[in-house]
Amino acid sequence: MDSKQTIKNIIEKAKLGNQIAYSKLLHTFWNDVYGFQLKRTENESDAEDITIQTFSKAFDKLSTYDSSYKFKTWLITISKNIHVDLLRKRKKDIINVKDNNEDYKKVLDDAPSAEDQLITEQNLATLLQHIKKLKPHYQEVINLRYFNELSYAAIATQLNEPVNNVKVKLLRAKKLLAEVITRNK
């Protein structure tokens, strides 16, 4: 199976709400979108924020994706538009996600991922040391979700961000934490 076909299959699974498919799309295309934004913004924080918002919006609108275009091109277009909006509005939080809980449920389900399993295997003291190696906003979302046991909606309210942004941040934070844990085994 070629990679073009594989991506198409992953997208189809994601459209059906498969959490692992969303994770694969995020992990596969994160560096492309982030690198694109880093060149445009010349600011790591803005590039990361825009990349998170890009995946949030893309996952929310995945049903509108036209497979006659490359998925990466579609993501970059979304990312570019978000950056243009950011420049116009001079604000960091620019996505207004409709308050529709059904859309949010499609992005992630509660099935534990490989990262979740790796994280749970760590003893608490070691895990806390690993979490401290993450950027502060990733530490915060991990702490709110796993230590304060807040729902996505509660985290979104506390951080004053759309729920989809919280879900994408959490996916990214778990991946980075799993990489830290794996490097330090």
TrEMBL record:
GO molecular function annotations of the record: DNA binding; sigma factor activity
Domain RNA polymerase sigma-70 region: 31-92
The UniProt record lists the keyword Transcription regulation: yes
Superkingdom assignment: Bacteria
UniProt entry keywords in alphabetical sequence: Sigma factor, Transcription, Transcription regulation
Span of domain RNA polymerase sigma factor 70 region 4 type: 127-177
GO process annotations (BP): DNA-templated transcription initiation
Stored PANTHER family: RNA POLYMERASE ECF-TYPE SIGMA FACTO (PTHR43133), RNA POLYMERASE SIGMA FACTOR (PTHR43133:SF51)
Family that this chain belongs to: Belongs to the sigma-70 factor family. ECF subfamily.
Protein name per its UniProtKB record: RNA polymerase sigma-70 factor (ECF subfamily)
Lineage: Bacteria, Pseudomonadati, Bacteroidota, Flavobacteriia, Flavobacteriales
